[in-house]
Amino acid sequence: MTTVLHLLGLPLRGQATRVFEGADHGAEVSFLVVDAPPGEGAAPHTHPYAEVFVVQEGEARFSIGDRTLQVSGPRVVVAPAHTPHAFVVTGTGRLRSLNIHPVPRIVTEWLAEGAAPGQVAGEGSRSAPGEAPHSAPGGRAPGPATSSAADGGTSPPTGAGPDLLAQAQGSEGGEGAGPAGRRA
Questions:
Q1: What is the dihedral of CA 44, 10, 39, 67, to 10 degrees?
Q2: For residue 155, is pLDDT > 80?
Q3: E strands in 6-165
Q4: CA atoms of 183 and 93, how far apart (whole Å)
Q5: Tell me, what DSSP letter sits at residue 138?
């Protein structure tokens, strides 16, 4: 069956992310469409699969495993399966990215302290299944909490703090890494 959806018709999670859950549309892939202002981001979490971030424009500081990378678009960043990762939007412009999850339903294990099922920073309300993990930086979390559309979704109340996303040394994966970048 052919499906055509308007991007603005996808569920809005938080104030910066639209969510496509493949299982709801007969697809084997899910994705997040991010349009986030500076200071927004995702708290530390993992997935049982690799997450691919297609950074189209803007800047973000990614923490993946024990590495911190300052990335500006256009770039592609891959967070390996089971590897803790987080990001925060840096610079003065918005981050526009497509975050690909190669599964019909997004599954997330939150590692941050204070993570509460279905809560996004500043909203004070429960989120719907497939909640995108974008919120303001600076928080800490008691983890882990798990999220999937099947369990009602989990989103931490705060984003990745500066202690987890220290400024990257050098240019690995950032502006100076060349067109192909470096493997993280």
A1: 40
A2: no
A3: 12-13, 17-20, 30-36, 41-46, 51-57, 59-64, 67-72, 75-79, 85-90, 95-101, 107-112, 134-135, 142-148
A4: 26
A5: -
Residue with tokens 């800047």: 59
| Gap between the Cα atoms of 138 and 136, Å rounded | 7
Q: Please, are residues 31 and 98 in contact by the beta-carbon 8 Å criterion?
A: yes
Tokens of 46: 């993992």
pLDDT tens digits, one per residue of 98-153: 999 999 999 999 997 654 333 232 222 223 334 434 433 333 232 344 444 333 33
Q: Which residues contact 138 (CB under 8 A, 6 or more apart)?
A: 158, 159, 161, 162
Q: Are 102 and 41 in contact (CB under 8 A)?
A: no
Positions of E strands within 23-65: 30-36, 41-46, 51-57, 59-64
- pTM summary value: 0.68
